[in-house]
Structure formats: structure tokens, C-alpha cells
Amino acid sequence: MIVEDMIIQKHQEIALDTFEMVLSGQEIPLQIQSGQFVHVQIGDGKHHVLRRPISIADIDRVAQTVTLIYHVTGDGTDWLSSRRLGETLNVLGPLGNGFDLHDIAGDTILIIGGGVGVPPLYHLTKQLIPHYHVIVVLGFATGEAVFYEDDFRRLAETYVATDDGSYGYHGVVTDIVKQLERDYQHYYACGPTPMLQAVQTQLAGTPGHLSFEERMGCGIGACFACVCEARNDKGYVKICQDGPVLRADEVML
Known about the structure:
15 strands; six-stranded antiparallel beta barrel; Rossmann fold; transport; seven-stranded mixed β-sheet; Elongation Factor Tu (Ef-tu), domain 3; alpha/beta; 6 helices; 253 residues
């Protein structure tokens, strides 16, 4: 775990209240694995005591940059959205456990993302496509919220659904998965808990991993603000420490 002042190299709004930020640094970009997250300090850390957890959309180890995508939901992320090129942000990371790419049986993998759960799946898809046939299904609330569709299409077979039908398929991601009727050997999903619950139920017979987008306090497992009930009477798992990526069969939603 490293604390580093990282420089903003790129910052732009890419969808409704959704921003893409590219940060450069010396150490953190070299340490991060797909699926992990960073904790970003907001302001001077006095008015906003808690850092904001933001997942990693992409990693460039040569340029030593990480790409973050976040949605403005309150004062903290609103402050973040006003940062300019060349400014520095105090970043703690990498945190959590990322995607497990081992022991995948078969050759067809399903990627399912919803809203702000889409970003960590982009770098994952880049890692998978040299070795597997990948199918991507993305869900958003409305057409104005859609982002990275073209980026995913350049990598893999991609489908988009919106809740209001203003873009792509009118429905939710599980509707598209049902219509495709493909034989998946493994899946990775990231998004809001109701979506993950629906995916977990629909693909109960398929091995998979779920990545959680939870509100966090400390980000290092000390505050118990982001727990999820585990199966087999094992109590609870901490999303920030045990996750954010967990096997689909080890949690109850």
C-alpha cells in the first residue's frame, strides 16, 4: 500500500455526471492489478475526512498512469470534478483484491457491467481477449449515461441496455444475457447490488466473480462499513479488504 501525490494528466466528462481522469505517478501504477481500487483524498482532508474509493478503469505501466472513472454523487466527487490538469491528488493504493484470472475452464467468458460498475471491467477485458472469446453486456439508466461503449466494441462483442430504452436494448443486462442463449464457462460482473443479485441468480450454475461498488469508510478493513454476508455460516466478508472482487458462490445477496 502506497501513499502518493499523483498528477492529473487528463480530465473530462464522458457521460452524464461521469468523469474520466488519468493520473500519473511513480509507484502506484506499477503496483495495481485489474479490479483493485484507490482511495483519493478530497480537498485538504480536513473538511472531507473520508477518502473516496474509485476503481481502476485502465493501467499503463509504461507511461505509469492509471485511468479512473467516477460519478458525481455528492460534495466530495463534485470537488473532484472541478480539478484541473497539472494539479495533484493524494492517492492511497492499491487496495483490495482484484480479478482472479486463473483456473478458468472453457473458452467463452461473459462480462457484465452496470453503471459505475463498468470501469474495472475494461482493463479486465483487455487482459482476457488474447486468450478467450469474450462477450460484454453493459447496462445504464439512460442513453445520456452510456460511456466506453466504443472502447469495449473495439475489444469484444458488446451489447448495451438502458432502463428507459433511450439507447440500445430496452431492459436490463439479464434480459440480454437470456436472449443471447450462449454457453458461458465463466463470468465477471460489477455493478449495483440488485444487478449483481440478479446475475448471481440467473447464472447460478456458472462459475463467476462479482466485483462490488460499495460505500466505504476506511478502505482498509478497520471500520466494518462495507460488509457482505458470506455463505456457509462464515459470517461476513469486508468488501474493501476481502474484495472488492469475490467468488459468486461465497457471498449471499
